Amino acid sequence: MLERPDIPDDAILAGLRDHYGLTVARIEFLPLGADVNTAVFRADATDDTAYFVKLRRGPFDDLSLHVPKWLHDHGLTAIIPPLEAHNGALWADLGGYKLAVFPFIAGDDGYTVDLLDRHWIELGGAVRSLHTAQLPRDMTDRLQRETYRDDWRQQVIAFQRMVEDRAFADPIADQLAAFVRSQRAVIDELVHRARELAAQLQAGDVPVVLCHGDLHAGNVLIDRQQRLYLVDWDTLMLAPKERDLMAPGGGLFANRRAPEEEERLFYRGYGPAEIDRAALVYYRCERIVQDIAAYCQEILLTDGDGADRHSGLRQLTGQFAPGQVVSLALKSAR
Predict the structure, then answer these.
(1) Helices and strands (H, E) in the chain, number of each type
(2) Are the CB atoms for 105 and 229 separated by under 8 Å?
């Protein structure tokens, strides 16, 4: 979320005090991330300890906190674990939000800094540890499982129809509508490929593992000591390993290296892996389809001049630029 949510600082400070026993001297909104339902803050306590504060509205699954905490406690140190509230829970209610608190790690994401060779290797090792983790049964039974549903594809088709002959008074929406019309053939191919491969995967028996679900440069943090962390666990699920493995070489790390070099370094850490090409191509196409649907929801169904809407338009159109994720996904498909 790039725009500060309508919640007073006093309410956040009271929540941190009442639920976590923290006396905070200063709180600062951090305009980070593309998720319009999640706002994050830095809170500096009176003892100079810094905390990362996360507020989430809308759908919330506490496994997004319990699973990374369990993984960290069982040796996956590339995770920043949530802190416990007074009652032992990993979150607390705060008005219409869920409040979670983490240690604050000063650093930059993978869009801001170049990942060193060793970071790519460490990332591969961390993802391998994630994919081979044996969670307790009570967690795995509750985790979302991949079903290859058609919801996102249907939404994109509906938005394509919406923009065919409709004018938008809002300039951001009008720009997006014009862009969607101009990319009709490419979007149709992405939807077709994803649908075709989803049917193939549904008919098969592809093994599933614990996946991060949204692996990209923005969810990799490099701290001041050059340590690597995986962040943002809201998309955890049981899925084919290719859900995560589609990222290296897929244009999701700012293209500072050739796709082949990303893959070479990543798999030095990940180790040998037999890749299901159908699953890899499916996730590269489906991820873009989901982005198209999500940004269309955010922009075409609202109006205004907010930073989130401007950023959404820029991020979506950027994916279609030469050498970016769309061309890499279709290259994989072809």
Answers:
(1) 12, 10
(2) yes
At 152, list the tokens: 């996102």
Instruction: Tell me the pLDDT tens digit for each residue of 275-331.
Output: 999 999 999 999 999 999 999 999 999 887 777 888 899 999 999 999 999 999 999
What mean pLDDT is reported for the chain?
A: 94
SS3 state at 314: helix
What's the confidence (pLDDT) of residue 2? 59
Q: What is the pLDDT of residue 175?
A: 95
What ranges in 225-273 are assigned the alpha helix state H?
242-245, 259-270
Q: How many CA atoms lie within 13 A of 119 on its CB side?
A: 19
The residue among 111, 110, 14 whose CA lies nearest residue 53 is: 14
What is the distance between the alpha carbons of residues 83 and 305, in angstroms, rounded to a whole number? 36
pTM for this structure?
Answer: 0.92
* Candidate CATH numbers 3.20.20.80, 3.30.300.30, 3.40.50.720, 3.30.200.20; the one for domain 9-104: 3.30.200.20
**What distances in angstroms separate CA 206 from CA 132, 197, 199, 215, 274, one per listed residue?**
15, 12, 12, 20, 12
Residue 3 has pLDDT above 80, yes or no: no
Q: Can you give the residue ranges of every domain in the chain?
A: 9-104, 117-333
* 172 in Cβ contact with 309 (< 8 Å): yes
Cα 174 to Cα 16: distance, rounded to the nearest angstrom: 42
Residue 1, pLDDT above cutoff 60: no
Could you please state the CATH topology (level 3) that the domain comprising 117-333 is classified under: Transferase(Phosphotransferase); domain 1 (1.10.510)
The alpha carbon of residue 2 and the mean position of all alpha carbons in its chain are separated, in whole angstroms, by: 15
Q: Which of 2, 312, 34, 315 is nearest to 173 (CA)?
A: 312
